[in-house]
Amino acid sequence: MCHLMTCAANGHTAPFGCPSLCFQCLRNDLGKPYVGPETYKRATKMTSGITFYAGSGMLDTEVLEEVQRRHDLRLEKKTSIDQKKKKAQRKLKKEVSAIKRAKLDKFCKKTKTLARKKFESLKAAEKKHLLKILKKLTVAELKLLCRWYKRTGDNPIPSTKEPLLARYIETMRRDSPA
Question: This protein's superkingdom (predicted)?
Fold first, then answer.
């Protein structure tokens, strides 16, 4: 255990007799709670969480290096997962943009305007025109468009053309995810 002395500046305890290392001051500055001696007295078991939560426990250099290595591995894994998700999102955006340019915008300049409005609020002629354009899309293209507008909590994407078309019409006015 380390030698403790009273921090002259504010009356807190500091390890190794060094007021600059007063962990209570550091934790209060960071807005994190301080674990004092009363916590140690109440604890039925001395666990690593109790010891190291407030930063008042000291690690051996080998143990500290292992903890830092594991922390770095977790961060690397998290960043690689995030990068994969972003890469997949960029690829999907590129494919959806290609479909919209080649299939939807090519047939009608009004398609963008019609797609922004609620399908129910369109006039009969506009609905017919939009459905005619959308029925020319293949199942794979409709799946891509539905995946683009899919949100967490939505039902799974259907696999046949008619439900896909209904799903796209339902979701096409949503904001783009990226």
Answer: Eukaryota
